[in-house]
Amino acid sequence: MTDSNGGIDPAPDSGTSAGPAEANTTHESEGGSVPEWQQEIESQPLVGAVESLDCLLRDFEGNAALCAKAQTFIKEQQKRRDVSFSASRTPGDGARGAEADEGRVGGSGEDSVQGTEGAWAMRRIRKDGCCFYRAYMYGVFLYFLRQRESIKVFIRRINEELLPQVHEVNVGAETVADFAEETVENLQKLESPEASMQTLDDIFNDTCSSNYIVVFARLLASTHIKLNSELYLPFLTAYATVEEYCSHEVDPMWVEAEQPQIMALTAMTQMPVEIVYFDQSPGEEPGKCTCRIICSLSLLRLHCLDYSR
């Protein structure tokens, strides 16, 4: 699928609070004039190729504070890799968890986290306001590419548990199921014995598929917030209701995720995430925000890097 509109009718006014089922999944500028900064963003792939973590040092060149944090992070990941590698070589250790198996995909040795020589690596996500959702869902799909026996269980959960909840808080939004269906269809592609990292990259670099998955992630986040308003409303000081908050900050495309959305999405998927921040704060340790859910998938660890040059 290559339809740039993603098969969704654009919202009549980008400033309205149309729900996610009516979301505009293209990032077009009104009046036909595209600003230079937007052209630069749109020239980037939705999900980039594998890069060495050392590229962070090049990005932060000339900034001692950020370089120090990057060096600490790189050493930490190398140490984690060494521990995982040692664990994988332990005689008699047949059962390997997700974290110990981070260097393999389907036994092929391909991976988006580790480079071809075993060094930890990273990918860049297009900075279009959907970067967290896209990065997170890429990580979720990557987990299932490695743990294919779990795909059917998660699909069943989408259809029998998550989608009914989404419908509950989006009454009358007939196209809600379309986003779940697209997500499920792409998960099913990973069940094929021929599925590889290229399959995953193709899914997330296809504008239609990638944006449908992002909208589904937004739906999951807004659903959890609406169904658990007592947990979130005390922190949403700029809005009177969670519905108002979601209509402005969660449902629309191109709006960045903050802590409430991250907590809500991980609660719905029951898959944790660790976000690493590089900033000008004192010390050599980068800031970290971890959303962990105690569940059968608690070994999964996803890294989302957040920094400004």
Automatic annotation (TrEMBL):
GO terms assigned for molecular function: cysteine-type deubiquitinase activity; ubiquitin binding
Domain OTU, residue spans: 120-309
Any Pfam family matching the protein: Peptidase_C65
GO cellular component, one term: nucleus
SUPFAM superfamilies listed in its UniProt record: Cysteine proteinases
Residue ranges of the region described as Disordered: 1-43, 80-113
Domain of life: Eukaryota
Single GO biological process annotation from the record: protein K48-linked deubiquitination
The protein, known as: Putative ubiquitin thiolesterase protein
Gene source species: Neospora caninum (strain Liverpool)
